[in-house]
Specification:
With 506 residues, the chain is an alpha/beta fold. Helices cover 27% and strands 26% of the residues. A hairpin with a 4-residue loop joins β20 (410-416) and β21. Bound molecules: alpha-L-arabinofuranose.
Protein backbone atom coordinates (compact mmCIF):
# COMPACT_ATOMS: atom_id res chain seq x y z
CA UNK A 1 0.00 0.00 0.00
CA UNK A 2 1.20 3.47 -0.76
CA UNK A 3 0.46 7.15 -0.17
CA UNK A 4 2.15 10.46 -0.95
CA UNK A 5 1.96 13.45 1.36
CA UNK A 6 3.27 16.93 0.80
CA UNK A 7 3.51 19.86 3.18
CA UNK A 8 4.99 23.32 2.93
CA UNK A 9 5.68 25.93 5.56
CA UNK A 10 4.01 28.50 3.27
CA UNK A 11 0.60 26.86 3.52
CA UNK A 12 -0.64 27.39 7.10
CA UNK A 13 -4.17 26.39 8.17
CA UNK A 14 -4.06 28.26 11.50
CA UNK A 15 -1.97 28.49 14.65
CA UNK A 16 -2.33 25.42 16.88
CA UNK A 17 -4.97 26.23 19.48
CA UNK A 18 -3.91 24.66 22.80
CA UNK A 19 -7.60 24.55 23.68
CA UNK A 20 -8.25 21.75 21.17
CA UNK A 21 -6.60 19.46 23.71
CA UNK A 22 -9.35 19.86 26.30
CA UNK A 23 -11.10 17.15 28.28
CA UNK A 24 -14.21 16.76 30.39
CA UNK A 25 -15.07 15.84 34.00
CA UNK A 26 -18.76 15.27 34.65
CA UNK A 27 -20.45 14.41 37.93
CA UNK A 28 -21.32 11.05 36.43
CA UNK A 29 -20.43 7.50 37.33
CA UNK A 30 -16.91 7.37 38.79
CA UNK A 31 -15.41 10.38 37.02
CA UNK A 32 -15.25 12.50 40.17
CA UNK A 33 -15.83 10.09 43.09
CA UNK A 34 -13.18 7.31 43.07
CA UNK A 35 -11.91 8.91 39.84
CA UNK A 36 -10.14 12.18 40.60
CA UNK A 37 -11.34 12.25 44.24
CA UNK A 38 -11.03 9.46 46.81
CA UNK A 39 -10.06 10.63 50.30
CA UNK A 40 -9.29 7.15 51.65
CA UNK A 41 -7.01 6.18 48.77
CA UNK A 42 -3.32 5.52 49.61
CA UNK A 43 -2.24 8.28 47.17
CA UNK A 44 -4.86 10.84 48.27
CA UNK A 45 -3.50 14.28 49.07
CA UNK A 46 -4.73 16.48 51.93
CA UNK A 47 -7.67 17.64 49.81
CA UNK A 48 -8.73 14.04 49.08
CA UNK A 49 -7.60 14.00 45.43
CA UNK A 50 -5.75 11.00 44.07
CA UNK A 51 -2.13 11.87 43.26
CA UNK A 52 -1.75 8.79 41.06
CA UNK A 53 -4.60 10.08 38.87
CA UNK A 54 -3.21 13.63 38.96
CA UNK A 55 0.15 12.36 37.70
CA UNK A 56 -1.58 10.67 34.76
CA UNK A 57 -3.64 13.79 34.04
CA UNK A 58 -0.45 15.86 33.89
CA UNK A 59 1.11 13.30 31.56
CA UNK A 60 -2.02 13.32 29.35
CA UNK A 61 -1.58 17.09 29.21
CA UNK A 62 -5.13 18.41 28.65
CA UNK A 63 -5.50 22.19 28.44
CA UNK A 64 -9.03 23.02 29.60
CA UNK A 65 -11.59 20.80 31.32
CA UNK A 66 -15.33 21.10 30.88
CA UNK A 67 -17.25 20.79 34.16
CA UNK A 68 -19.63 19.69 35.82
CA UNK A 69 -21.60 18.19 32.88
CA UNK A 70 -22.90 16.98 30.52
CA UNK A 71 -26.43 15.82 31.13
CA UNK A 72 -25.82 16.22 34.87
CA UNK A 73 -25.64 20.00 34.63
CA UNK A 74 -29.22 20.28 33.38
CA UNK A 75 -30.58 19.34 36.83
CA UNK A 76 -27.77 20.86 38.92
CA UNK A 77 -28.13 23.60 41.56
CA UNK A 78 -24.64 25.08 41.82
CA UNK A 79 -25.43 26.48 45.28
CA UNK A 80 -25.62 22.88 46.56
CA UNK A 81 -21.93 22.45 45.81
CA UNK A 82 -20.49 25.39 47.80
CA UNK A 83 -20.25 26.21 51.50
CA UNK A 84 -19.41 23.91 54.42
CA UNK A 85 -19.32 20.32 53.22
CA UNK A 86 -21.32 18.95 56.13
CA UNK A 87 -24.18 21.31 55.25
CA UNK A 88 -24.29 20.45 51.56
CA UNK A 89 -27.43 18.59 50.48
CA UNK A 90 -27.45 15.09 49.04
CA UNK A 91 -29.55 15.13 45.86
CA UNK A 92 -30.98 12.78 43.31
CA UNK A 93 -29.38 13.25 39.90
CA UNK A 94 -32.16 12.24 37.50
CA UNK A 95 -29.86 12.49 34.45
CA UNK A 96 -27.78 9.46 35.49
CA UNK A 97 -30.20 8.05 38.06
CA UNK A 98 -27.53 8.50 40.73
CA UNK A 99 -27.15 10.05 44.16
CA UNK A 100 -24.99 13.21 44.20
CA UNK A 101 -23.35 13.92 47.56
CA UNK A 102 -21.88 17.30 46.56
CA UNK A 103 -18.65 16.54 48.43
CA UNK A 104 -16.83 17.94 45.41
CA UNK A 105 -18.10 21.28 44.15
CA UNK A 106 -16.96 24.47 42.51
CA UNK A 107 -14.17 25.28 44.99
CA UNK A 108 -12.78 21.77 45.19
CA UNK A 109 -12.81 21.29 41.43
CA UNK A 110 -11.15 24.66 40.79
CA UNK A 111 -8.44 23.80 43.33
CA UNK A 112 -7.92 20.40 41.65
CA UNK A 113 -7.72 22.10 38.23
CA UNK A 114 -5.02 24.45 39.52
CA UNK A 115 -3.03 21.52 40.84
CA UNK A 116 -3.45 19.71 37.52
CA UNK A 117 -2.47 22.85 35.58
CA UNK A 118 -5.68 23.01 33.53
CA UNK A 119 -8.22 25.75 32.76
CA UNK A 120 -11.85 25.23 33.85
CA UNK A 121 -14.63 25.46 31.24
CA UNK A 122 -17.84 25.86 33.25
CA UNK A 123 -21.32 24.87 32.10
CA UNK A 124 -24.49 26.53 33.42
CA UNK A 125 -27.84 24.80 33.83
CA UNK A 126 -30.31 25.87 31.14
CA UNK A 127 -32.44 22.74 31.61
CA UNK A 128 -34.25 23.38 34.91
CA UNK A 129 -32.83 26.86 35.52
CA UNK A 130 -32.17 30.02 33.58
CA UNK A 131 -30.89 33.59 33.45
CA UNK A 132 -30.85 34.36 37.19
CA UNK A 133 -29.03 31.21 38.32
CA UNK A 134 -26.44 31.52 35.54
CA UNK A 135 -25.76 35.18 36.35
CA UNK A 136 -25.56 34.38 40.07
CA UNK A 137 -23.02 31.60 39.50
CA UNK A 138 -20.92 33.89 37.31
CA UNK A 139 -21.03 36.66 39.93
CA UNK A 140 -20.06 34.15 42.64
CA UNK A 141 -17.18 32.79 40.57
CA UNK A 142 -15.73 35.87 38.86
CA UNK A 143 -16.82 39.09 40.56
CA UNK A 144 -13.89 40.58 42.52
CA UNK A 145 -15.86 41.22 45.75
CA UNK A 146 -18.07 43.69 47.59
CA UNK A 147 -21.35 41.96 46.75
CA UNK A 148 -23.05 39.40 48.94
CA UNK A 149 -22.43 36.57 46.47
CA UNK A 150 -18.81 37.34 45.71
CA UNK A 151 -18.12 37.84 49.42
CA UNK A 152 -19.72 34.46 50.09
CA UNK A 153 -17.01 33.02 47.86
CA UNK A 154 -14.46 34.65 50.16
CA UNK A 155 -16.23 33.29 53.23
CA UNK A 156 -16.09 29.85 51.60
CA UNK A 157 -12.32 30.07 51.37
CA UNK A 158 -11.54 31.83 48.11
CA UNK A 159 -11.10 35.60 48.15
CA UNK A 160 -9.57 35.83 44.67
CA UNK A 161 -12.07 35.38 41.83
CA UNK A 162 -11.88 32.03 40.05
CA UNK A 163 -11.58 33.95 36.78
CA UNK A 164 -13.32 31.29 34.70
CA UNK A 165 -13.16 32.48 31.09
CA UNK A 166 -15.12 29.91 29.07
CA UNK A 167 -18.80 29.20 29.84
CA UNK A 168 -21.18 26.73 28.17
CA UNK A 169 -24.81 27.82 27.85
CA UNK A 170 -26.37 24.50 28.87
CA UNK A 171 -25.74 21.07 27.40
CA UNK A 172 -27.26 19.12 24.49
CA UNK A 173 -30.54 21.00 24.73
CA UNK A 174 -31.66 19.46 21.40
CA UNK A 175 -31.80 15.96 22.92
CA UNK A 176 -35.08 14.53 24.30
CA UNK A 177 -32.91 12.78 26.94
CA UNK A 178 -31.90 16.15 28.35
CA UNK A 179 -33.55 17.40 31.54
CA UNK A 180 -35.48 20.46 30.39
CA UNK A 181 -35.06 19.61 26.68
CA UNK A 182 -36.16 22.51 24.47
CA UNK A 183 -37.03 23.34 20.91
CA UNK A 184 -34.44 25.39 19.00
CA UNK A 185 -36.67 28.44 19.32
CA UNK A 186 -37.12 28.02 23.10
CA UNK A 187 -33.42 27.34 23.66
CA UNK A 188 -32.26 30.10 21.29
CA UNK A 189 -34.29 32.70 23.19
CA UNK A 190 -33.16 31.46 26.61
CA UNK A 191 -29.51 31.21 25.54
CA UNK A 192 -29.62 34.76 24.13
CA UNK A 193 -31.12 36.27 27.28
CA UNK A 194 -28.70 34.34 29.50
CA UNK A 195 -25.73 35.31 27.33
CA UNK A 196 -26.71 39.00 27.43
CA UNK A 197 -26.84 39.13 31.22
CA UNK A 198 -23.70 37.02 31.67
CA UNK A 199 -21.71 39.38 29.44
CA UNK A 200 -23.07 42.32 31.42
CA UNK A 201 -21.89 40.68 34.64
CA UNK A 202 -18.45 39.87 33.18
CA UNK A 203 -17.63 41.16 29.68
CA UNK A 204 -14.33 39.24 29.61
CA UNK A 205 -15.93 35.80 29.35
CA UNK A 206 -16.36 33.65 26.24
CA UNK A 207 -19.67 31.90 25.68
CA UNK A 208 -20.40 28.60 23.97
CA UNK A 209 -23.95 28.10 22.72
CA UNK A 210 -25.15 24.49 22.42
CA UNK A 211 -25.27 23.04 18.90
CA UNK A 212 -26.40 19.54 17.97
CA UNK A 213 -25.73 16.45 20.08
CA UNK A 214 -24.72 14.54 16.96
CA UNK A 215 -24.91 14.83 13.18
CA UNK A 216 -27.80 12.31 13.04
CA UNK A 217 -30.16 14.42 15.14
CA UNK A 218 -33.35 15.04 13.13
CA UNK A 219 -32.99 18.74 13.94
CA UNK A 220 -29.32 19.01 12.93
CA UNK A 221 -28.83 22.05 10.74
CA UNK A 222 -32.10 23.78 11.48
CA UNK A 223 -31.13 23.72 15.19
CA UNK A 224 -27.83 25.51 14.54
CA UNK A 225 -29.48 28.04 12.22
CA UNK A 226 -32.28 28.96 14.64
CA UNK A 227 -30.03 29.06 17.69
CA UNK A 228 -27.44 31.22 15.92
CA UNK A 229 -30.12 33.58 14.61
CA UNK A 230 -30.93 34.32 18.25
CA UNK A 231 -27.39 34.36 19.64
CA UNK A 232 -24.76 35.13 17.01
CA UNK A 233 -24.21 38.66 18.31
CA UNK A 234 -23.76 37.41 21.86
CA UNK A 235 -21.72 34.20 21.74
CA UNK A 236 -18.19 33.27 20.71
CA UNK A 237 -18.47 29.56 19.94
CA UNK A 238 -21.10 26.96 19.02
CA UNK A 239 -20.72 23.41 20.25
CA UNK A 240 -20.71 20.13 18.35
CA UNK A 241 -20.70 16.70 20.01
CA UNK A 242 -19.47 13.61 18.18
CA UNK A 243 -19.11 10.02 19.43
CA UNK A 244 -18.12 7.03 17.28
CA UNK A 245 -18.19 3.27 17.80
CA UNK A 246 -17.33 0.14 15.85
CA UNK A 247 -20.51 -1.50 14.61
CA UNK A 248 -20.37 -5.31 14.23
CA UNK A 249 -18.76 -6.24 10.91
CA UNK A 250 -17.94 -2.65 9.91
CA UNK A 251 -14.44 -1.82 11.11
CA UNK A 252 -13.85 0.13 7.88
CA UNK A 253 -16.44 2.81 8.60
CA UNK A 254 -15.28 3.07 12.21
CA UNK A 255 -11.67 3.67 11.16
CA UNK A 256 -12.93 6.44 8.86
CA UNK A 257 -14.69 8.28 11.73
CA UNK A 258 -12.44 11.27 11.04
CA UNK A 259 -14.10 11.64 7.63
CA UNK A 260 -17.44 11.89 9.45
CA UNK A 261 -16.04 14.50 11.83
CA UNK A 262 -14.54 16.54 8.95
CA UNK A 263 -17.96 16.57 7.30
CA UNK A 264 -19.80 17.50 10.53
CA UNK A 265 -17.40 20.41 11.15
CA UNK A 266 -17.75 21.61 7.52
CA UNK A 267 -21.56 21.54 7.79
CA UNK A 268 -21.61 23.55 11.04
CA UNK A 269 -19.04 26.00 9.60
CA UNK A 270 -21.27 26.55 6.55
CA UNK A 271 -24.25 27.39 8.78
CA UNK A 272 -22.18 29.78 10.90
CA UNK A 273 -21.06 31.54 7.71
CA UNK A 274 -24.59 31.74 6.35
CA UNK A 275 -26.05 33.26 9.52
CA UNK A 276 -23.04 35.55 9.95
CA UNK A 277 -23.44 36.83 6.38
CA UNK A 278 -27.17 37.40 6.85
CA UNK A 279 -26.59 39.30 10.10
CA UNK A 280 -23.49 41.20 8.96
CA UNK A 281 -21.36 39.62 11.69
CA UNK A 282 -17.65 39.55 10.85
CA UNK A 283 -16.43 38.39 14.27
CA UNK A 284 -15.22 34.75 14.10
CA UNK A 285 -17.55 32.21 15.75
CA UNK A 286 -15.54 29.13 16.68
CA UNK A 287 -16.69 25.53 16.74
CA UNK A 288 -16.30 23.98 20.17
CA UNK A 289 -16.15 20.21 19.74
CA UNK A 290 -16.76 19.99 23.46
CA UNK A 291 -17.57 16.28 23.59
CA UNK A 292 -15.83 13.82 21.27
CA UNK A 293 -14.54 10.29 21.63
CA UNK A 294 -15.12 6.63 20.91
CA UNK A 295 -18.14 5.55 22.96
CA UNK A 296 -19.83 2.15 22.67
CA UNK A 297 -23.32 3.62 23.00
CA UNK A 298 -24.96 0.41 21.82
CA UNK A 299 -23.47 -1.36 24.86
CA UNK A 300 -24.52 1.53 27.08
CA UNK A 301 -28.11 1.26 25.91
CA UNK A 302 -28.13 -2.51 26.47
CA UNK A 303 -26.20 -2.75 29.78
CA UNK A 304 -25.37 0.41 31.74
CA UNK A 305 -28.69 2.06 31.07
CA UNK A 306 -30.71 -0.73 32.71
CA UNK A 307 -30.27 0.44 36.34
CA UNK A 308 -31.26 3.88 35.10
CA UNK A 309 -34.54 2.44 33.89
CA UNK A 310 -35.31 -0.02 36.71
CA UNK A 311 -35.34 2.53 39.50
CA UNK A 312 -32.06 1.79 41.32
CA UNK A 313 -30.42 4.87 42.85
CA UNK A 314 -26.69 4.40 43.36
CA UNK A 315 -23.89 6.64 44.54
CA UNK A 316 -21.18 6.93 41.88
CA UNK A 317 -22.10 3.68 40.07
CA UNK A 318 -19.93 2.25 37.27
CA UNK A 319 -21.26 3.96 34.17
CA UNK A 320 -19.89 3.71 30.62
CA UNK A 321 -16.45 2.50 31.71
CA UNK A 322 -15.55 1.48 28.16
CA UNK A 323 -12.32 -0.52 27.86
CA UNK A 324 -10.49 0.72 24.78
CA UNK A 325 -8.57 -1.46 22.33
CA UNK A 326 -5.99 -0.72 19.64
CA UNK A 327 -8.55 0.17 16.94
CA UNK A 328 -10.15 2.65 19.35
CA UNK A 329 -6.75 4.29 19.90
CA UNK A 330 -6.20 4.55 16.13
CA UNK A 331 -9.61 6.23 15.78
CA UNK A 332 -8.90 8.66 18.65
CA UNK A 333 -5.60 9.52 16.92
CA UNK A 334 -7.35 10.06 13.61
CA UNK A 335 -10.04 12.25 15.23
CA UNK A 336 -7.20 14.40 16.61
CA UNK A 337 -5.84 14.62 13.05
CA UNK A 338 -9.27 15.84 11.94
CA UNK A 339 -9.39 18.45 14.74
CA UNK A 340 -5.91 19.72 13.82
CA UNK A 341 -6.81 19.84 10.12
CA UNK A 342 -9.86 21.95 10.96
CA UNK A 343 -8.00 24.34 13.26
CA UNK A 344 -9.19 27.31 11.19
CA UNK A 345 -12.76 26.57 12.43
CA UNK A 346 -12.38 24.48 15.61
CA UNK A 347 -11.60 26.80 18.50
CA UNK A 348 -11.81 24.22 21.30
CA UNK A 349 -12.33 20.49 21.73
CA UNK A 350 -12.83 18.24 24.74
CA UNK A 351 -12.06 14.55 24.82
CA UNK A 352 -15.06 13.17 26.73
CA UNK A 353 -14.23 12.25 29.35
CA UNK A 354 -11.07 12.23 31.53
CA UNK A 355 -11.26 9.48 34.16
CA UNK A 356 -13.26 6.21 34.20
CA UNK A 357 -16.27 7.49 32.20
CA UNK A 358 -15.34 6.75 28.53
CA UNK A 359 -11.89 7.90 29.53
CA UNK A 360 -8.21 7.66 28.66
CA UNK A 361 -7.43 7.19 32.37
CA UNK A 362 -8.92 4.40 34.49
CA UNK A 363 -8.77 3.97 38.25
CA UNK A 364 -10.02 1.41 40.74
CA UNK A 365 -11.32 2.35 44.20
CA UNK A 366 -8.44 1.75 46.62
CA UNK A 367 -6.44 0.34 43.71
CA UNK A 368 -4.33 1.39 40.76
CA UNK A 369 -4.77 4.02 38.05
CA UNK A 370 -3.60 3.31 34.50
CA UNK A 371 -3.51 4.52 30.90
CA UNK A 372 -6.02 3.16 28.41
CA UNK A 373 -4.91 2.66 24.78
CA UNK A 374 -6.53 5.98 23.80
CA UNK A 375 -4.30 7.82 26.28
CA UNK A 376 -1.29 7.61 23.98
CA UNK A 377 -2.41 9.41 20.80
CA UNK A 378 -3.89 12.19 22.93
CA UNK A 379 -0.84 12.64 25.19
CA UNK A 380 1.62 12.47 22.31
CA UNK A 381 -0.36 14.91 20.13
CA UNK A 382 -1.03 17.37 22.97
CA UNK A 383 2.66 17.19 23.91
CA UNK A 384 3.94 17.86 20.40
CA UNK A 385 1.48 20.16 18.58
CA UNK A 386 2.88 23.71 18.76
CA UNK A 387 3.25 26.59 16.33
CA UNK A 388 1.18 26.33 13.14
CA UNK A 389 -0.96 23.62 11.61
CA UNK A 390 0.26 23.11 8.02
CA UNK A 391 -2.08 22.15 5.18
CA UNK A 392 -1.55 18.59 3.94
CA UNK A 393 -2.00 17.33 0.38
CA UNK A 394 -2.39 13.56 0.37
CA UNK A 395 -2.74 11.04 -2.46
CA UNK A 396 -3.42 7.62 -1.04
CA UNK A 397 -4.59 4.15 -1.92
CA UNK A 398 -8.22 3.93 -0.92
CA UNK A 399 -10.85 1.51 0.39
CA UNK A 400 -14.63 1.36 0.38
CA UNK A 401 -16.69 2.05 3.51
CA UNK A 402 -20.39 1.60 4.22
CA UNK A 403 -20.78 4.94 5.98
CA UNK A 404 -18.36 7.25 4.16
CA UNK A 405 -17.93 5.85 0.61
CA UNK A 406 -14.36 5.75 -0.78
CA UNK A 407 -11.83 6.75 1.87
CA UNK A 408 -8.03 7.21 1.86
CA UNK A 409 -6.17 4.43 3.67
CA UNK A 410 -3.66 7.01 4.94
CA UNK A 411 -4.49 10.23 6.73
CA UNK A 412 -2.19 12.91 8.11
CA UNK A 413 -1.84 16.25 9.85
CA UNK A 414 1.30 18.33 10.32
CA UNK A 415 2.37 21.07 12.70
CA UNK A 416 5.48 23.22 12.60
CA UNK A 417 7.46 25.55 14.80
CA UNK A 418 10.70 27.20 13.66
CA UNK A 419 12.61 24.27 15.11
CA UNK A 420 10.38 21.27 14.54
CA UNK A 421 7.98 19.63 12.11
CA UNK A 422 5.61 17.01 13.50
CA UNK A 423 3.66 14.52 11.39
CA UNK A 424 0.56 12.76 12.79
CA UNK A 425 -0.20 9.71 10.65
CA UNK A 426 -2.77 6.96 10.35
CA UNK A 427 -2.84 3.73 8.35
CA UNK A 428 -6.43 2.47 8.20
CA UNK A 429 -5.57 -0.86 6.60
CA UNK A 430 -6.36 -3.69 8.99
CA UNK A 431 -3.94 -6.07 7.34
CA UNK A 432 -1.08 -4.38 5.47
CA UNK A 433 1.65 -1.84 6.19
CA UNK A 434 1.60 1.33 4.10
CA UNK A 435 4.58 3.14 2.63
CA UNK A 436 4.17 6.90 2.99
CA UNK A 437 6.44 9.18 0.96
CA UNK A 438 6.44 12.68 2.40
CA UNK A 439 7.57 15.58 0.20
CA UNK A 440 9.33 18.04 2.51
CA UNK A 441 10.69 20.34 -0.21
CA UNK A 442 8.68 23.20 1.27
CA UNK A 443 9.60 22.26 4.84
CA UNK A 444 13.03 20.58 4.80
CA UNK A 445 14.29 18.67 7.84
CA UNK A 446 17.75 17.81 9.15
CA UNK A 447 17.05 14.92 11.47
CA UNK A 448 14.44 12.51 12.80
CA UNK A 449 14.00 13.38 16.47
CA UNK A 450 11.62 10.56 17.33
CA UNK A 451 9.06 8.26 15.74
CA UNK A 452 6.43 6.35 17.70
CA UNK A 453 3.46 4.26 16.77
CA UNK A 454 0.42 2.74 18.45
CA UNK A 455 -0.57 -0.55 16.85
CA UNK A 456 -1.33 -4.12 17.88
CA UNK A 457 1.41 -5.37 20.21
CA UNK A 458 3.74 -8.16 19.02
CA UNK A 459 1.83 -11.37 19.45
CA UNK A 460 -1.32 -9.40 20.33
CA UNK A 461 -4.29 -8.37 18.25
CA UNK A 462 -6.31 -5.24 17.62
CA UNK A 463 -8.61 -6.13 20.51
CA UNK A 464 -5.75 -5.83 23.03
CA UNK A 465 -6.54 -3.51 25.95
CA UNK A 466 -4.84 -2.26 29.10
CA UNK A 467 -6.45 -3.43 32.33
CA UNK A 468 -5.79 -3.16 36.08
CA UNK A 469 -3.87 -6.45 35.89
CA UNK A 470 -2.14 -5.80 32.55
CA UNK A 471 -1.60 -2.08 32.54
CA UNK A 472 1.06 -1.98 29.83
CA UNK A 473 -0.23 -4.47 27.27
CA UNK A 474 -0.57 -1.66 24.73
CA UNK A 475 1.97 1.19 24.65
CA UNK A 476 3.60 3.28 21.93
CA UNK A 477 6.41 1.44 20.14
CA UNK A 478 9.37 2.99 18.37
CA UNK A 479 8.72 3.28 14.64
CA UNK A 480 11.85 1.94 13.00
CA UNK A 481 11.16 2.45 9.30
CA UNK A 482 11.66 6.19 8.97
CA UNK A 483 14.17 7.28 6.31
CA UNK A 484 15.08 10.92 5.80
CA UNK A 485 16.68 11.73 2.43
CA UNK A 486 20.21 13.20 2.49
CA UNK A 487 19.04 16.62 1.34
CA UNK A 488 16.20 16.58 3.92
CA UNK A 489 13.62 17.14 1.21
CA UNK A 490 11.76 13.87 1.74
CA UNK A 491 11.03 11.30 4.38
CA UNK A 492 9.65 7.81 3.87
CA UNK A 493 7.72 6.19 6.70
CA UNK A 494 6.41 2.65 6.73
CA UNK A 495 3.22 2.74 8.76
CA UNK A 496 2.30 -0.59 10.41
CA UNK A 497 -1.11 -2.07 9.64
CA UNK A 498 -3.90 -0.43 11.66
CA UNK A 499 -1.75 2.18 13.34
CA UNK A 500 -1.52 5.77 14.54
CA UNK A 501 1.97 7.28 14.47
CA UNK A 502 3.81 10.47 15.30
CA UNK A 503 7.10 11.49 13.66
CA UNK A 504 9.05 14.48 14.99
CA UNK A 505 11.58 16.06 12.65
CA UNK A 506 14.08 18.82 13.35
O1 LIG B 1 -20.24 12.20 28.07
C1 LIG B 1 -21.39 11.47 28.45
C2 LIG B 1 -22.67 12.18 28.06
O2 LIG B 1 -22.73 12.25 26.66
C3 LIG B 1 -22.83 13.62 28.49
O3 LIG B 1 -23.33 13.75 29.77
C4 LIG B 1 -23.81 14.15 27.49
O4 LIG B 1 -23.64 15.53 27.27
C5 LIG B 1 -23.57 13.32 26.25
O5 LIG B 1 -24.74 12.82 25.73
Amino acid sequence: LHARLSITRDNVVAPVSPRIFGSFVEHMGRAVYTGIYEPGHPTANAAGFREDVLDLVRELNPSLIRYPGGNFVSGFRWEDSVGPREARPVRLDPAWHSVETNEVGLHEFAAWAETAGVEVMQAVNLGTRGVAAAAALLEYANHPGGTTRSDERGANGRTEPFGIRVWCLGNEMDGPWQIGHKTAEEYGRLAAETARVMKWVDPTIELVVAGSSNAEMPTFGSWERTVLEHTIDLVDHISLHAYYEEKPGDLGSFLASGVGLDRFIADVAAIIDEVAAERGVDRPIGISVDEWNVWYQTRFNEVDKQPLLTGEWNTHPRLIEDEYNVSDAVVVGSLLISLLRNSDRVSMANLAQLVNVIAPIRSEPGGPAWRQTTFFPFALTAGAARGDVLATAIHSDTYETVAHGTVNLADAAATATEKEIVLYLVNRSETAPLTLDVDLAGAPARAVLSAQSVHAPDGGDRFSTNTADHQDAVAPATLLDVTLSEDGDAVTVILPALSWSIVRLA
